[in-house]
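Good morning,

Attaching, inline, the backbone tokens for the sequence recovery test we're adding to the shared suite. The designed sequence is right after.
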């Protein structure tokens, strides 16, 4: 399992009985986590001192129960990046801290490339990977179906000092965007894909990961330049394991361009137990020039 030890403003303090105890800067939150099936004792006093807790509803969704003042928006840093956070309607804060290990990997590839890389970030959410790639010198096309998430990503770009870098912001259905880019003959040196398990595009388009991930990756491989650097796929869907994503990249990107493909779970270190909580999986294809 891959994880980063470089977080200072985020900490996964404990995990037990289907919940996480987390520190986001100075804010302590308790959030649901289906991976935390272990029924360990909650010895840390912060379990009873949290600022807020997300309570799931039996009928779907849920709500934040606030015990202390939680700012509408606050910021935390990772290395030279700054992210804006806020409690969202479905337990999230606008950042997946486990993805830092992938930001670091992509930044290393970009910085060692010795050439400008043009990156396509699909299902780009609030722009964690976007600002990381921009910070290391890449140009980025950021695509997400949610107008609100793209606006949030723009705020993160300002906070990170990269809003003036070469980038394009698009509110669009990712599949339709890829189709148009193919018709235009556009090429990218790297692609990042963080698709949801299920979702809808701005025009009501239905996305179901198991049915649509392979044909979308096939099309995206056709968008790669003659000397591409990397292709990264993240998944939080239990039915799509890291090995399945590795297979997909193996029979598409690796078959076309050579290079190497790998996959693994990514996770977050848990302070109280010394263990690592799994938080999804990532498959990575790297081109011949970066291996």
């Amino acid at each position: 399992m891959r994880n980063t030890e470089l977080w200072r403003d985020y900490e996964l303090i404990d995990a037990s009985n289907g919940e996480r105890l987390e520190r986001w800067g100075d804010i302590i939150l308790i959030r649901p986590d289906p991976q935390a099936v272990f029924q360990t004792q909650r010895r840390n006093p912060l379990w009873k001192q949290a600022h807020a807790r997300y309570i799931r509803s039996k009928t779907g969704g849920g709500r934040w129960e606030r015990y202390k003042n939680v700012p509408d928006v606050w910021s935390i840093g990772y290395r030279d990046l700054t992210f804006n956070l806020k409690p969202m309607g479905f337990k999230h804060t606008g950042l997946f801290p486990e993805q830092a290990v992938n930001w670091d990997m992509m930044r290393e590839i970009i910085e060692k490339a010795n050439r400008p890389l043009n990156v396509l970030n699909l299902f780009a959410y609030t722009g964690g990977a976007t600002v990381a790639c921009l910070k290391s010198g890449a140009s980025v096309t950021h695509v997400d179906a949610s107008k609100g998430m793209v606006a949030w990503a723009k705020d993160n770009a300002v906070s990170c000092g990269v809003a003036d870098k070469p980038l394009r912001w698009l509110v669009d259905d990712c599949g339709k965007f890829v189709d148009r880019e193919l018709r235009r003959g556009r090429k990218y040196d790297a692609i990042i894909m963080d698709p949801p398990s299920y979702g809808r595009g701005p025009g009501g388009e239905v996305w179901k990961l198991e049915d649509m991930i392979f044909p979308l990756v096939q099309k995206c491989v056709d968008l790669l330049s003659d000397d591409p650097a990397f292709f990264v796929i993240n998944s939080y869907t239990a039915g799509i394991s890291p090995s399945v994503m590795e297979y997909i990249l193996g029979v598409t990107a690796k078959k076309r361009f050579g290079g190497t493909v790998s996959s693994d779970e990514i996770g977050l270190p848990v302070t109280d137990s010394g263990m690592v909580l799994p938080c999804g999986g990532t498959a990575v294809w790297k081109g011949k020039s970066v291996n």
